[in-house]
Design a protein that fits this description.
Shape: elongated
Strand content: 25-35%
Oligomer: single chain
Number of domains: 2
Strand order of the largest sheet: 1-2-3
Structural class: alpha+beta
Radius of gyration: 21 Å
Number of helices: 3
Largest sheet: 3 strands, antiparallel
Number of strands: 5
Order of helices and strands: EEEHEHHE
Length: 114
């Protein structure tokens, strides 16, 4: 379920701004957080838009990308060309000693949107 909220701001002259509705878009694996914000004349319109967007986001979320945590860690560790060799070795040892034995067989489900 997508998260969202409505709010108003107080202007510098003391009056209130229009109503705003902001909702978090579903995040794809590895992507940054994204939000959609719209302005409305009434609080009711803002809540209705927010409810519609929440239902729409819930219907569009697919779980078609599934990999194991151990596979993802191996890919992530191999893409660390920007780090020092000592950091790469430390990260690899932590993953091999702690993360993979405990979490390696769990599936990571990445949500994608269309």
């Amino acid at each position: 379920m997508a998260r969202g909220r409505t709010y108003r701001r107080k202007k510098t002259d003391g009056s209130w701004s229009r109503w705003y509705a902001v909702i978090d878009k579903p995040v794809e694996c590895g992507a940054r957080r994204r939000q959609i914000t719209r302005a409305f004349d009434t609080q009711r319109e803002a809540h209705e838009w927010l409810a519609f967007q929440s239902m729409n986001a819930a219907g569009n979320a697919d779980t078609d990308s599934e990999i194991l945590v151990s596979q993802w860690l191996n890919e992530w560790l191999s893409d660390q060309a920007f780090t020092k060799p000592s950091t790469q070795a430390t990260n690899r040892s932590h993953a091999d000693l702690y993360l993979v034995p405990l979490l390696g067989q769990l599936a990571m489900i990445c949500s994608t949107t269309r």
